[in-house]
Design goal:
- By secondary structure, this protein is of the alpha/beta class.
- The chain has one domain: NAD(P)-binding Rossmann-like Domain (Rossmann fold, 3-Layer(aba) Sandwich), CATH 3.40.50.
- The chain has helices spanning 15-26, 56-66, 93-112, 141-160, 179-183, 196-207, and strands at residues 5-10, 29-35, 46-50, 75-78, 124-128, 167-173, 218-220.
- Helix 1 (15-26) packs across helix 6 and helix 3 (93-112) runs parallel beside helix 4 (141-160).
- The longest helix is centred in the middle third of the chain and has 20 residues, at 93-112.
- The radius of gyration is 17 Å and the shape is globular.
- It starts with a strand and ends in an 8-residue tail after the last strand.
């Protein structure tokens, strides 16, 4: 890149967020990593911000800190999320609400308060959604509901911000071997799960694409993990 560009990524403490942050740093971005626990990346172009995206006041404070470094965000990656697996009748109201609050309301807070940092005809909003946003799957009703809602919000905002030339790309992967699946006790054989490298190939393609190209829906999964 010819000039310094800034990328904001949520959920960078581990997993996909961590990998995407390291990749964008290698691409020459200044990366703002947002997480609840902090991110163990030692790079002069990495800005580590601890923030609970569920809390709107915390997000507003986060943007104040970002404003000390830049008034432009060339990329926003909505990655933070939670996943828990249980039959609907065994899912507590708190668990269901937590999915909506983190996976949807958190992204809403990030987008709502990003407007002053949008670069017309350039800002790229990349959303890490899920195959579960296209097809409801057994025992993940809370997660699936949150991802369906997230996609709907992004589609609506794509129309609202069309006049700004903001581009939106939404990634909908199948199961990936990251800590979020292990923590969710997902009963899925490893040979039916994509690796992080598989996801990163798609992410690299999307982020390296020309400014006039966007990917409204990219569904991808392991060839053995076909969802019927």
């Amino acid at each position: 890149m010819e000039e310094s560009q800034f990328a904001l990524i949520t959920g960078t403490s581990s997993g996909l967020g961590f990998e995407m942050a390291e990749f964008l740093l290698e691409e020459g971005y200044t990366v703002i990593g947002v997480s609840r626990r902090g991110t163990a990346i030692d790079n002069p172009n990495f800005i580590d911000i601890i923030c609970d995206i569920k809390d709107e006041a915390s997000v507003e404070e986060m943007y104040e800190l970002i404003g000390n470094h830049t008034n432009e965000l060339h990329m926003i990656v909505l990655n933070a999320g939670i996943f828990e697996m249980s039959p609907l009748v065994e899912t507590s109201t708190k668990e269901f609400t937590d999915h909506l609050t983190t996976n949807v309301v958190g992204a809403f807070h990030i987008l709502k308060h990003s407007s002053d940092f949008i670069v017309e005809d350039e800002t790229h909003i990349v959303t890490v959604s899920s195959i579960a946003s296209k097809k409801g799957l057994a025992n993940i009703s809370a997660y699936s509901a949150s991802k369906f809602a997230l996609n709907g919000m992004i589609e609506s905002l794509r129309e609202e911000w069309a006049h700004l030339g903001v581009r939106f790309s939404t990634l909908m992967p199948g199961a990936i071997a990251t800590p979020i699946w292990e923590e969710g006790d997902m009963d899925l054989p490893r040979d039916q799960m994509m690796g992080v490298d598989d996801f990163m190939h798609v992410f690299q393609m999307v982020t390296r694409s020309p400014r006039h190209v966007q990917f409204p829906e990219i569904v991808f999964l392991h060839k053995k993990g076909i969802v019927k």
